[in-house]
Amino acid sequence: MDLEARFERTIASEQRVEPRDWMPEGYRKTLVRQIAQHAHSEIIGMQPEGNWITRAPSLRRKAILLAKVQDEAGHGLYLYAATETLGADRADLTEKLITGRQKYSSIFNYPTPSYADVGVIGWLVDGAAICNQVPLCRTSYGPYARAMIRICKEESFHQRQGYELLLTMMAGTDAQRAMVQESVDRFWWPALMMFGPPDAESTNSEQSLAWRIKRDTNDELRQKFVDMTVPQAEKLGVTLPDPELRWNAERGHHDFGQPDWDEFWQVVKGNGPAGAQRLAHRRKAHEDGEWVREAARVHSEKKRGVE
Ligand SMILES: [Fe+2]
Ligand SMILES: [Fe+2]
């Protein structure tokens, strides 16, 4: 009881909960689930753009894209390390990912058939990730909050490089402008889905807000993203594919339409256009890495034998 009171006091006074502290089992489980899902998203998220590394149109674009995709691998690693401070086992989490028992962000189950997708993902997908992740720098669990500070700095570079690529394409030929618009049309609604279901249907939200794991609701974050993105779209000269999108002076925010939530749930379940492909690729990469894990095991056994 005393431990629980101390935990509640830590949360209420905006202090961080650290790995050595007592915490309710539900809090620990919620964090492991959320951080693992986040880590899986970073790792799976390397695929849609990684697809373009060998075909980047210039050395400069290739260097930028390589750096971005490597950052995502780093994000995955910090986050898996954060789950380990909660007693989770990384091999077990990977197993759960590749057998479909743990999820990752629905956005990465959409294909990237055009090079403009690299720019649009940076602009919209990393942009939405920033809206989701900046509040997590103040999340109540210390190791997660600290990992997010560095991740957010890198996400901001990701967003910039995407927007800069799109500005360049929009200043190019009609065909390039059409490529950008076509990609925006495909990614706009999936980007809005990244904030999760509407608050009324979001099952985990309330407790996560009380524990200050989450700081804002899904709908608040979605609104923030739309308000931030509309002027950027105007400057870019692209049209966001939502006939209901307009400024509401009374609310001081943009009104906008709802994504197709049936599609969202289908994609979350792994039935998205590239879902099976993403998971198969991750599974193969894991199997191909077996010799590295084996070598590490043998090495550490040898070392233990010597001591
Ligand atoms: Fe990331
Ligand atoms: Fe990113």
UniProtKB/TrEMBL annotation:
Broad enzyme group: oxidoreductase
GO BP terms, alphabetized: phenylacetate catabolic process
GO MF annotation list: phenylacetyl-CoA 1,2-epoxidase activity
Gene Ontology CC terms, in alphabetical order: cytosol
E.C. designation(s): 1.14.13.149
Keywords: Oxidoreductase
PANTHER family reported in the protein's UniProt record: 1,2-PHENYLACETYL-COA EPOXIDASE, SUBUNIT A, PHENYLACETIC ACID DEGRADATION PROTEIN PAA
Protein name per the record: Ring-1,2-phenylacetyl-CoA epoxidase subunit PaaA
Organism for this UniProt entry: Saccharothrix violaceirubra
Lineage: Bacteria, Bacillati, Actinomycetota, Actinomycetes, Pseudonocardiales
